[in-house]
Design brief:
mainly alpha, elongated
Length: about 80
């Protein structure tokens, strides 16, 4: 897994940059999915709090699909 807090792209050997770019694009996709999961979790909780259980369940099903798409190393 890439530690984005320790990246030094200017210090990276040129031959490593194509693979690193690919890895970063892949990581960005998963970060976006995790952000979507987080937002959906909040929204589902708000609907539950408001008594709109059926809507909350639909959102939670969406969350489950996002979770299933994550690679094993990102699942909890």
């Amino acid at each position: 897994m890439i530690d984005i807090y320790k990246l030094n792209l200017d210090g990276e050997p040129l031959e490593n940059l194509p693979a690193l770019g690919k890895d970063l694009r892949r990581a960005a996709q998963y970060v976006n999915r995790l952000a979507g999961y987080t937002e959906a979790r909040h929204t589902a909780a708000e609907f539950r709090r408001a008594g709109q259980i059926e809507t909350a369940i639909k959102i939670e099903q969406f969350m489950e699909s996002l979770y299933r798409e994550l690679p094993e190393e990102l699942r909890w």
